[in-house]
Design goal:
- The protein has 839 residues and is mostly helical.
- 63% of the residues lie in helices and 5% in strands.
- The strands form five sheets. A three-stranded antiparallel beta sheet has the order 7-8-9. The chain has a two-stranded antiparallel ribbon with strand order 1-2.
- β1 and β2 form a beta hairpin.
Length: 839
């Protein structure tokens, strides 16, 4: 059995009752889709089972009938679908375009099929118009409030430009134009309304400014005339009626305008402190003077009006400004009271008068006044002991400074080694000893500070070098060290013992080497004193290599570093041959000959020359091995360095490199030995020529007298010790003797050295008290030169006088010498005190 649309096959194994009921019935056409439904469903069909029979071929007829019944249903379905799509279009477009900006809408239109329909295009154009109008409205509002010239700008023209820009970008769409006009027109109206309000407010503001400026001018005029505050306030209110008649300003509005005048006067309190009190009086008078209305009604004060709170604010502002002015004016007085209270010396009468002065109302509060009195009371009770302590500390510092200044003066006179311990009173009133070492350190620090001050005022390019030379000479003469220089020298040498990165020399090493070479040329003993043996060898090797042109400073330092780290690397056949040559030269010349070659004659003749020869030979071998010098040059340089470290005292070499000694130490020490030999002649019987000294262990400034031959002490008592006090005593005696001799030699030198003819001027002799014989001789030479210079000056003056007869006439034109002198006194402005001539 064939399957036909709307029919089900008959199932013989399960017949249904419905099939029996439908037997004999015919099939009718379906009614088609129902309109209200989105997806219509088919109505139930009647089915039946047909008994088996022979097939009838009605296929074409059945197909024609089926298609004929289906076409109206499809047409009806399409119409329903179109209506549904038309109803859903506004919601779909609103969901897609609402809230979007103009550029976003323009981008969405490109791929939206709804935009190509008439209704969709219309709806989208309206959404786009509203978006563009909103954007341009925000742009116009922001421009109006931030950049637009509200007083002189063309607002309609600006808005037309915005409208034209939108039309040009979306021209030809009437739906866009209509919607844009409706939305942007509302924005235009709002901005133009604001512009109208601005012009109205601006006109009112100009009127108010005109009135206020006129009032300020009136205040200035009456102010100069010396009118009081109430008179000025009354004059301002007398202009109310005229302002009302001409400028249409009511009395209440003019009352508000007075607030601006009060603001101007408050500002003037700040800018014109001298008249601050008068400005404050005018402000108060404006606020507190009775007012009269337009109809003559008494209205009370401005402070009692509806704008009373604002008036009170202006008064408070003016009073605050006046208080600040008074604070500045009276700041010095307040500082004085504060300082007095801190030390318990407050002038309470002056404080009370200051506080009670009405002009100082805001300058000092009652709390500040009470605080000052309380601080004064506390200071009087609690700071008496502290004041005494501070005074004691200051006294102690003053005493220490005085002792330091005395030590500095001694250092300037090369007598710093002679300082002795000084006893002062400390802050507790107990004796305190300022040791000689502390005095010397203080003097060195003061000298360094003085040099810094001099360098800061010396504009010459070599100011630093001159200062270094002065400091080095000062320290060398006094046997002291420079703490900063010592640190630089030690740091530079220590850097040579550390591991370097590459071939770059540390800056501290270069700085130390440069300082050492400078000091070696100015004050060799000072350079030796501030370095140990290892550092000295390091610097000397580099100095010698650089001095004799074998290597530049950096290469010389590199060689010194290598030798300092591993001397065995320099052990070569050439070095051994040079050392052999050194030994031969030394054996040939002898140590005395080597020292004599470099000017160390005293050291060359020392009986214990071996104490200086050993270090000299060691240094010479270093110069030969590391520096590559010849035997003669190595011995010469080593002898120079070694000779600086020893001083010959009574024929004996004494190591003094580590001691602070005066320049005339050998002479003073020899005199002390002679003094000991004389004083102990009966006790010990030593000959002065057989005695010398050597350093006393653990005593930096003391020596012991020993026998030259055995180097053993000749006395274990205090009389066999040589101290700095002994040397200072001997040096003072020598100076006193020299001064006496100088005074004796200069007894006849109190006559004028030179007197010009006519008694015009004379050169008085110098006061020779305290001069040594050498200084007296120097003064003699200066006197002679002064005579020669004076004679030349006189000759030149006489020649000039001949040329200027009217100013300084020649002596030959006058009858007497007295007339010549009188004329000269007159020309020079010197009053004539000579007795009158007898007639």
């Amino acid at each position: 059995m064939a399957n036909l649309p709307g029919l089900t096959p008959f199932r013989e194994d399960n017949p249904t009752d419905s099939g029996r009921r439908n037997r004999g019935r015919v099939v009718v056409n379906d009614t088609g889709p129902k309109a209200p439904q989105l997806r219509p469903t088919a109505n139930p069909v009647d089915t039946y089972a047909r008994p088996a029979q022979a097939p009838i071929d009605n296929d074409l007829k059945n197909l024609a009938e089926a298609l004929g019944s289906l076409n109206p249903a499809l047409m009806h379905f399409a119409k329903v679908e179109q209506q549904i799509d038309k109803d859903e279009l506004p919601a779909r477009i609103a969901n897609k375009y609402a809230g979007k900006t103009g550029p976003e809408i323009a981008e969405l239109i490109k791929d939206d099929p709804d935009a190509r329909t008439a209704m969709g295009g219309t709806l989208i154009a309206k959404y786009q118009a509203r978006a563009v109008a909103s954007e341009l409205g925000r742009e116009a509002s922001e421009h109006y409030h931030t950049q637009f010239d509200k007083d002189g700008g063309d607002l309609p023209g600006y808005l037309r430009g915005l409208r034209q820009r939108a039309m040009d970008a979306h021209g030809g769409n009437k739906y866009f134009a209509e919607e844009f006009d409706r939305n942007f027109g509302q924005i235009e109206q709002g901005i133009q309304t604001q512009q109208v309000k601005h012009h109205v407010e601006r006109n009112n503001e100009q009127v108010r400014e005109t009135i206020q400026q006129g009032w300020v001018g009136t205040v200035d005029k009456l102010f100069r005339e010396g009118k009081s505050g109430p008179e000025i306030a009354t004059a301002l209110r007398e202009s109310y009626q005229a302002n009302k008649a001409t400028l249409a300003q009511s009395y209440p509005d003019q009352d508000k305008m007075l607030l601006g005048v009060m603001d101007v006067l408050s500002a003037r309190i700040e800018n014109d402190p001298a008249n601050a009190k008068k400005y404050l009086e005018v402000v108060r008078s404006i606020a507190e003077t009775d007012r009269t209305g337009a109809d003559g009604t008494k209205l009370g004060t401005l402070r009692d009006s509806t704008i009373g709170p604002e008036v009170t604010q202006r008064i408070a502002k003016a009073e605050a400004a006046f208080g600040q002015v008074r604070d500045r004016v009276t700041k010095e007085d307040k500082y004085t009271f504060s300082a007095q209270a801190d030390v318990g010396a407050l002038d309470e009468k002056a404080l009370d008068a200051f506080f009670e002065n009405p002009d100082n109302k805001r300058a000092m509060t009652e709390q500040e006044w009470r605080s000052l009195k309380l601080r004064n009371l506390n200071a009087q009770q609690a700071k008496a002991a502290e004041l005494a302590k501070v005074q004691a500390e200051e006294m102690e510092r003053t005493q220490v400074q005085t002792v330091t200044n005395q030590a500095l003066d001694l250092g300037d006179k090369q007598q710093l080694p002679w300082v002795k311990d000084q006893t002062i009173l400390d802050r507790n009133g107990k004796p305190k000893v300022v040791t000689a070492k502390e005095q010397r350190e203080g003097a060195v620090a003061a000298m360094i500070e003085r040099e810094r001050w001099l360098v800061s005022r010396d504009q010459s390019p070599n100011a630093e070098d001159k200062s270094l030379k002065r400091q080095a000479e000062w320290l060398a003469r006094n046997g002291e060290k420079h703490p900063e220089w010592e640190g630089i020298l030690k740091g530079g040498a220590m850097a040579g013992m550390t591991v370097m990165q590459g071939d770059t020399l540390p800056p501290v090493m270069k700085q130390g080497y440069e300082l050492y070479t400078k000091l070696a040329g100015i004050a060799p003993n000072l350079a030796h004193k501030m370095t140990d043996d290892t550092s000295r060898e390091f610097y000397e090797v580099a100095r010698v290599l650089n001095q004799y042109g074998q290597k530049d400073p950096e290469r010389a330092l590199m060689t010194a570093i290598q030798y300092n780290r591993d001397p065995s690397k320099f052990d070569s056949l050439t070095a051994r041959q040079s050392q052999q040559k050194l030994n031969e030269t030394l054996e040939k010349m002898g140590a005395g000959g080597v020292f004599g070659m470099v000017g160390g004659g005293d050291l060359a003749g020392a009986q214990n020359l071996e104490v200086a020869s050993v270090p000299m030979q060691k240094l010479a071998r270093i110069f030969v091995t590391a520096g590559g010098l010849s035997a003669e040059k190595a011995l010469e340089e080593a002898a120079k360095v070694t000779a600086r470290n020893f001083t010959v005292v009574n024929g004996n070499a004494v190591y003094t490199a580590d001691r602070s000694i005066p320049p005339n130490f050998p002479k003073l020490a020899t005199q002390r030995i002679e003094e000991f030999a004389t004083q102990t002649a009966t006790k010990y019987g030593h000959d002065k020529d057989g005695l010398t000294i050597r350093p006393l262990p653990n005593q930096p400034n003391a020596w012991i007298i020993v026998d030259k031959a055995t180097q053993l002490p000749v006395s274990f008592g205090s009389d066999g010790i040589v101290t700095m006090d002994d040397l200072a005593r001997i040096d003072a005696a020598n100076r006193a003797k020299a001064e006496a001799e100088a005074a004796k030699q200069s007894a006849d030198r109190y006559k004028p050295i030179f007197t010009a003819p006519g008694g015009l001027f004379s050169i008085d002799p110098p006061k020779l008290s305290g001069y040594s014989p050498a200084e007296v001789q120097q003064l003699e030479e200066e006197r002679k030169r002064a005579n020669d210079d004076a004679a030349r000056l006189l000759e030149r003056a006489q020649q000039d006088a001949k040329k200027r007869q009217s100013t300084l006439p020649d002596l030959g034109k006058h009858d007497t010498l007295e007339e010549f002198r009188a004329r000269n006194r007159k020309n020079l402005g010197i009053p004539d005190r000579s007795p009158p001539k007898k007639q």
